[in-house]
């Protein structure tokens, strides 16, 4: 293998970034419910993302950064990425979450690059709008194909790791498909299933 793509929320990070942000405004329960339905594949990802981000309107940019810079990383995340890179793999993050979290975590967890979404800010306050690299249910698969073309890699060179329905699209283009503490919809398509919150378990399966 030459490339490993990780999901971020509930994979490299223990929880959902948007749920932590919504908690600041008292909407955690509402947003978490939509998140869960989306990850189970019951709601279109674009629809769920834009609806959830709408609840964040009015949150200060500084609050967003403070929360995103103090997220709990999944046990074994740093060690697993270090081991994969030692084996010569390029390690990338695809996230339906936000750059405030993924770009900051890059320097801590030491992956190579991140593709995620951007919360729109006006006068240092969230407007409730969002845009970016991972807006749709097909986005991860689409980006993986582009990355493979750029790096001249094949699905047989690729491992992907995720937990929810929006990871399905990238599972199509990788030989090694890891469902990590995942929803049933993703487990059905995986060839490696990890049910323990310890990412180092992956190393024993590849």
Q: Could you list some keywords that capture this structure?
A:
206 residues; alpha/beta; 7 strands; 38% helix
Question: What is the CATH T-level topology?
Answer: Rossmann fold
Q: What is the 3D shape?
A: globular
Order of helices and strands: EHHHHHEHEEHEHEHE
Count of alpha/pi helices: 9
CATH level-four homologous superfamily name: HAD superfamily/HAD-like
Q: What's the count of strands? A: 7
Order of strands in the sheet with the most strands?
4-3-2-1-5-6-7
DSSP strand (E) fraction? 15-25%
User: CATH class, please?
Assistant: Alpha Beta
| CATH architecture assignment name | 3-Layer(aba) Sandwich
Q: Let me know the largest β-sheet.
A: 7 strands, mixed
Low-confidence sequence ranges: none
Computed Rg: 16 Å
Mean pLDDT: 96
- Proportion of helical residues: 25-40%
Q: What is the domain total for the residues?
A: 1
- Given helix and strand content, the structural type is alpha/beta
How does this structure look, described?
The protein is of the alpha/beta class and 206 residues long. The chain has a single domain, classed as HAD superfamily/HAD-like (Rossmann fold, 3-Layer(aba) Sandwich), CATH 3.40.50. A seven-stranded mixed β-sheet has the order 4-3-2-1-5-6-7. Strand 2, helix 6 and strand 3 form a beta-alpha-beta unit. The longest helix is centred in the last third of the chain and has 13 residues. The model has no long low-confidence stretch (mean pLDDT 96).
What's this, in brief?
By secondary structure, the protein is α/β, with parallel strands linked by helices. The chain is built from 9 helices and 7 strands; from the N terminus they run E-H-H-H-H-H-E-H-E-E-H-E-H-E-H-E.
């Amino acid at each position: 293998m030459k490339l490993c793509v990780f999901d971020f929320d509930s994979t490299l990070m223990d929880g959902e970034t948007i749920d932590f942000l919504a908690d600041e405004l008292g909407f955690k329960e509402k947003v978490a419910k939509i998140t869960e339905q989306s990850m189970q594949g019951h709601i279109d990802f674009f629809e769920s993302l834009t609806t959830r981000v709408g609840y964040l309107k009015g949150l200060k940019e500084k609050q967003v950064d403070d929360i995103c810079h103090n997220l709990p990383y999944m046990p074994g995340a740093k060690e697993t990425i270090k081991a994969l890179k030692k084996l010569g793999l390029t390690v990338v993050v695809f996230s339906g979450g936000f750059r405030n979290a993924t770009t900051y975590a890059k320097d801590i967890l030491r992956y190579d690059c991140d593709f995620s979404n951007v919360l729109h800010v006006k006068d240092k306050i969230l407007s409730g709008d969002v845009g970016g690299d991972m807006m749709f249910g097909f986005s991860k698969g689409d980006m993986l194909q582009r990355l493979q073309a750029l790096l001249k890699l094949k699905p047989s060179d690729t491992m992907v790791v995720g937990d929810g329905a929006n990871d399905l699209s990238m599972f199509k283009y990788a030989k090694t498909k890891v469902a990590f503490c995942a929803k049933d919809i993703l487990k059905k398509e995986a060839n490696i299933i990890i049910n323990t919150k310890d990412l180092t378990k992956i190393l024993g399966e590849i």
